[in-house]
UniProtKB/TrEMBL annotation:
Segments passing through the bilayer: 34-51
Similarity annotation: Belongs to the peptidase M28 family. M28B subfamily.
Pfam families reported in the protein's UniProt record: PA
UniProt protein name: Putative glutamate carboxypeptidase 2
Stretches the record annotates as Disordered: 1-25
Keywords: Carboxypeptidase, Glycoprotein, Hydrolase, Membrane, Protease, Transmembrane, Transmembrane helix
Any one Gene Ontology molecular-function term assigned to this protein's record: carboxypeptidase activity
SUPFAM superfamilies: PA domain, Zn-dependent exopeptidases
Presence of the UniProt keyword tRNA-binding in the record: no
Keyword Transmembrane tagged: yes
Length: 568
């Protein structure tokens, strides 16, 4: 059994229920043990234990027949009534909701807490002066609620917009515009004689994660970074002659919408990189705040995300050479210039990086024949705001801390016994077919399962048909800061992650507007896409848990290894 790095024995990987009948899954059959890890999709999975193991095609069909859009909608609504950032009381309540959902289905379930370093805003201010020495105008830094917003009262609980783990500090300096914040963008600025050193870099979302953008800004010498969501990429386009409209009228991000995120450049708890954290009161080795302050994994400069409207206000105040066409905004945007200045931004950010408790919820269906082999299903539960689409987005390391710490703690056991880790972080973005990402030995299984489920948007086709039309071929799981990173990159477990639709159709990502209303109107109006994803997901689980021969096919793996690796 894994021990913490401090040498102290912790609870076993699988916490056994005191009631042996329940722990045995009530005749749940299955050869392998099946861990539903933090999963909110309990209801569909639940039907599994009602089924006889003898006739697999019959119980696969029965499983599929039990999918229910009303249940999916009800769980989503209940989980997103309040914002539930990691470490808060609201997120602990969401954990209890998931625990109760599993328990009510007679699954033995328990919560494993970890104490980890989380990061909250204490004070933010940002002001703009037309030039050094001139009067500065402060930005309100508030995302406005919308007309008839049913969550307007709960919106008061949403944390002020910020970047987790941003350095605290105050910077007043001229601003330089650096497009999407790639290293090449800074190289271009240098080639135009624009010096970024000591300046505030203004960059826009669209190509890179915020932690990459802030890292690149710092590498270029910037003293601070401001990241905004350009209307060109997140605001949608208006029909000719019409005015642009946004949520709740359309799926697009309102002008005051802000995409928040984390700047930590790693996985899991920053104080325990690559080794497990422990519960509050227990003893485990941690990096000190001095270690962290000097760590390359921390952003090292103050940074703040702002809205499209604030980004545009800053750009309007800038001088210098006109930026190249690819750096410009969309229709109706002002002409973007490179700077530096003469506009001066004054940013003050004070954050509180503090140890707080997060909870992993586990439910276990014990297998009969190989109960020491695990098929693991999971995702994260905590959200930056309401989390209706993204209960813990794939880019937000803070949100995956729980699964990372658990994976780190149980690394040896998982490495030898886990059959697969099946993650669904965002199940539905909108229309556009299933988009799986996987390690290659799962490709054939994904295809097989998706052929058994009708497409929710056009039931005359299968999920496989629309998947191959919209998203061929199956892509690979990659990327730090994702739910599955610890499982794939640290432990080497066959893993998949999948969603329905396209990320580009989800402009409210990590903003105030990622709420139930958005999902009901734009993401998945009848919740059939949620059910379809759960159906494919569950079939893959059933086959991995029950097939006589574990359905991992290494032929695609061999082919993949022959593909020249060109994308470094
Ligand atoms: C920047 O803003 C802070 C907070 O509002 C203020 O105390 C400080 O004097 C400002 N700095 C400059 C150089 O204007
Ligand atoms: C930081 O968070 C801790 C724990 O929640 C709290 O006790 C402390 O008062 C906070 N500090 C500031 C400056 O807000
Ligand atoms: C579930 O699907 C049915 C049939 O399409 C539809 O009438 C109902 O409104 C859906 N329920 C929800 C909560 O969307």
């Amino acid at each position: 059994m894994a021990t913490s790095r401090g040498g102290k024995q912790r609870q076993p990987l699988l916490h056994h229920s005191p009631t042996p009948a329940a722990a045995n899954g009530g005749g749940a059959a299955g050869r392998r043990r099946f861990i539903a890890f933090l999963a909110a999709a309990a209801a569909l999975v639940a039907s599994y234990h009602l089924l006889a193991p003898t006739d697999s095609s019959r119980y696969h069909a029965l499983y599929l027949s039990l999918g229910c859009n009303a249940t999916a909608a009800a769980h989503l609504r209940a989980l997103t009534l309040r914002p539930h950032v990691a470490g808060t009381e609201a997120n602990a309540a969401a954990a209890r909701y998931v625990l109760d959902a599993f328990s009510s289905l007679s699954f033995p379930a328990h919560i494993t807490p970890y104490s980890v370093l989380l990061s909250y805003p204490v004070h933010r201010s940002l002001s703009l002066a037309a030039a050094r020495g001139l009067a500065a105008r402060p930005f309100s830094l508030v995302q406005e609620t919308y007309k008839d917003d049913p969550y307007a009262a709960a919106a008061a609980e949403v944390l002020p917009t910020y970047f987790a783990y941003s350095a605290s500090g105050s910077v007043a300096a001229e601003v330089v515009y650096a497009n999407y914040g790639h290293n090449e963008d800074y190289a271009y600025l240098a080639s135009r004689g624009v010096d970024v050193a000591g300046k505030v870099a203004l960059v826009r979302y669209g190509d890179l994660h915020c932690e990459d953008m802030v890292r690149n800004a710092r590498a270029a010498g910037a003293a601070a970074a401001i990241v905004y969501t350009d209307a060109k990429d997140f605001g949608g386009s208006a029909p000719k002659g019409a005015k642009r409209r946004w949520f709740p009228d359309t799926r697009w991000l309102p002008p005051t919408g802000v995409q928040v995120g984390t700047l930590y450049y790693g996985n899991g708890d920053p104080t325990t990189p690559l080794w497990p954290s422990c519960a509050a009161g227990d003893d485990c080795e941690r990096l000190s705040s001095e270690d962290l302050a000097g760590s390359e994994a921390m952003p090292g400069i103050p940074a703040l995300p702002v809205s499209a409207r604030d980004g545009e206000t800053i750009l309007k105040a800038m001088g210098g050479d006109v930026a190249p066409p690819k750096w410009q905004g969309g229709e109706g945007a002002p002409v973007y210039r490179l700077g530096p200045g003469p506009a001066v931004l004054n940013l003050t950010y004070i954050g509180n990086d503090t140890l707080a408790t997060i909870e992993n919820v586990f439910a276990v269906i014990q297998g009969k024949e190989e109960p020491d082999r695990y098929v693991i299903v999971g995702n994260h539960r905590d959200a930056w705001t309401f989390g209706a689409v993204d209960p813990n987005s794939g880019t937000a390391a803070m949100l995956e801390i729980g699964s990372t710490e658990w994976a780190e703690e149980n690394m040896d056991t998982l490495a030898s016994r886990a059959v697969a880790y099946l993650n669904v972080d965002i199940s539905v973005f909108g229309p556009g077919g299933l988009k799986p990402r996987a390690t290659p030995q799962l490709d054939e299984l994904i295809k097989e399962a998706s052929k058994m489920v009708p497409d929710p948007d056009d039931p005359s086709e299968t999920m496989y048909d629309t998947m191959m039309r919209h998203h061929p071929p199956i892509t690979r799981v990659a990327g730090a800061g994702t739910d599955f990173a610890a499982f794939v990159q640290h432990i080497g477990i066959p893993s998949l992650d999948m969603s329905y639709g396209r990320f580009d159709d989800y402009p409210v990502y990590h903003s105030l507007y990622d709420d139930y209303v958005w999902v009901e109107r734009f993401g998945d109006p009848l919740f059939h896409r949620h059910v379809a994803v759960a159906s494919v997901w569950g079939l893959i689980v059933l086959k991995l848990a029950d097939d006589e021969i574990v359905p991992l096919n290494y032929v695609p793996y061999a082919s993949e290894l022959e593909v020249p690796f060109i994308h470094i």
